[in-house]
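Page 42, continued from yesterday. The earlier attempt failed because a stray header line got pasted into the input along with the sequence. Redoing it now with the clean sequence only.
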Amino acid sequence: MRKLLTTFTVLLATASVAFAQNFSEPQRNAMEKIAQAFAGVQVCTRYVINERMVNLIGIRFNMPISDPAVMKYVEERAIFHRKRIQGRSEDDICGSMTRLYGPEGTDAKGLVVAKR
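This time it went through. Structure tokens are written below.
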């Protein structure tokens, strides 16, 4: 996870905002889910991002996660969502993470996994 976040930070420095406008609606929706999960695991320490699932989503929607434009979009949206959930309890966020992105999640099944 730390490696993925570091990669995000390094590559985002070179990303162009103009590329973000070229994403299709399904790609933006997929990146939005990833961004929400990244924001959620910053509050809910019971879960971590399932990097394998992030990569599979990237493949499914033809948007390599290592692409600087993808990473920039996800990072910007994660910051937005982190601000939105600021002040909510960890239990509340963990419940949402379980329902939306946990093993039986309704939005992106398996996007987060229990921390070991």
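Notes: The helical segments are 2-12, 17-20, 25-43, 51-60, 68-85, 90-101.
Reminder to self: strip header lines before submitting.
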